[in-house]
Amino acid sequence: MKKILTSITTVLGLFVLSLPVIAQQNKLLDSAKNIFRAQPELASSLLVQVKTNAIKANDNNSLIAAELIEGNIAYFKGKHNEALKIYLHALGTAEKNNLHEDIAAICNEIGTLFKKNKDFKKALNYYTRALNEAININDNAQIANSHNNIGLVYEEDGAYQNALKQYQKSLQYYQKAKDKLGESYSLEYIGYVFGLMKNYDFALEYLQKSLSLRRELKDNYGIAVCLIELTEINRDKKDFNQAIVYAKQAISFCKEINYPDMLQQGYLLLSEIYEQKKDFAQAYQAHKNYATIKDSIFNVAKSKQINELQTQYDTEKKEQKISILHKENTIQKLKLTQRDGIIITISLAFLLSSIIGYLLYNRYKLRQNSRLQNEVIAQQDLATKAVLTAEENERKRIAGELHDGLGQMFSAVKLNLSALADHFEFKDEHGKKMYGKTLNLVDESCKEVRVISHQMAPNVLLKAGLASAIRDFIDKIDVKKLKVNLSTFGLQDRLDQNIEIVLYRVIQEAVNNVIKHAKANSLDIQLTKDEEGINAMIEDNGKGFDITQLEKFEGIGLKNIRTRVIYLNGTVDFSSKPGQGTLIAIFIPF
């Protein structure tokens, strides 16, 4: 017992002794975090001390935190390769010690780096991993942050519907975590993406909610951003008077908090709005104020640049003084090596000529290969188009044969059977029932032929357009087995016939796959048309599948979907998890 008490006392003593060290580490980390953008060199020197202490104390948390800030310093200096190297080293340490919270934080930073470099696929991979790690430790705030990051990737890639879903999930988790600051950002992101989708009423509603929260939290930067975005939405909505009100609020607030970047943005927006209102005097004054602020920002940056150049000049001057001391010795050495230099120069000239000749030949070969490849691609496009056109023509032919041939024959059989009933009496009740069943079978066959004919070449698609054809198709589905919700935006006008046919076939294929394989009871279909193209979202609540094993599930149905979308130069993405349903996102550009 005495030994146990002694051990406990020793451990407590070490713990108490470590408290000042931990406090010092946290203080250094906070200082570095606060100054790393304005004073990166000073922050780096603080981080060296943190890392030294962390390695001595085997403190992985402090080590990872220091490397994250180091990576951020490299990132903001534009040294992205160096930043990635630091982040990956920190990730290795976190993985080795099963620090899930740190893994999530690091993956978010790496995702941001790849997003900045427009590598959206890798950005999504890291953000998704960050999300999974956050879910693993049930960290609602980190889950929300990851959903926001994923949404930003989709938004930047133009997939606004996908972005909106991620922001809405983020909002739910921030509300669970009772993180009002995070909630304000999700509300802002939702409002902004609604603005991009030209759904201005929802955009204004969510941005005003975000503004209200940020005023409550006194988040000055966030308030300024919301006021600017509310100005933009009202301008796009053509509500110029309200846009001017928000622009003036933004300008007044940015002056109050000394925020020149947003101040110049406010004046620029105000100038554009007055110009659209034909109030050129006010537009000129606002633009004059914008130019003044812009020049002052430029002068600050220019002054900083001049100081940096002066420092560089002083350094070079010192180096020149040192070089003069060695100049005389160098001249003597140059005389001795001059002859050798001439020989080397001739050799290099010959070598350079050979290299240039090789490069020119190689360039010619690359051009030839490029032409050949373009020709192959063009032939493949023509072949694909021919296959799809032939398939559609064959569908129309078969539909016509079914409707005009087999359908008419079934109708004639039904009429003849009905007429026969008047010419003979049935021996017993069983014979009468068999006749009735036969007549019903013929009637059902007529209906089935008509349905198949319409599915293969729906007249409603040719007459009324895509939205009506899809609605007609899903109306024939038994709601007890599968409830289908269809929503369309911007499809009042007819589309190109090829686009309508391909999208109809793709959605028809997707719905049939859900009915056959997904075991779902609910299916959401959303079609949105904007200036860039058409977005189609098909989401079910079925059994789903492992997306990493897509090849195992990619039968004729999914291949048909891919082939048809690629034919229109579109993109298709599948998102699914076992037990969590499947989402198919399609984009067809105009």
Question: Can you give a write-up of this model?
Answer:
The chain has helices spanning 2-35, 40-57, 60-76, 80-96, 100-116, 120-136, 140-156, 160-176, 180-196, 200-217, 220-236, 240-257, 260-276, 280-325, 327-420, 429-456, 459-464, 466-475, 497-518, 550-553, 556-567; strands spanning 483-489, 522-529, 533-540, 571-576, 582-589. By secondary structure, the protein is an alpha+beta fold. The chain has 5 domains: 1-97, Serine Threonine Protein Phosphatase 5, Tetratricopeptide repeat; 99-218, Tetratricopeptide repeat domain (Serine Threonine Protein Phosphatase 5, Tetratricopeptide repeat, Alpha Horseshoe), CATH 1.25.40.10; 220-309, Serine Threonine Protein Phosphatase 5, Tetratricopeptide repeat; 340-457; 463-589, Histidine kinase-like ATPase, C-terminal domain (Heat Shock Protein 90, 2-Layer Sandwich). It has a 5-stranded mixed beta sheet, with helices on one face. Strand 2 and strand 3 (533-540) form a beta hairpin. It catalyses: ATP + protein L-histidine = ADP + protein N-phospho-L-histidine.
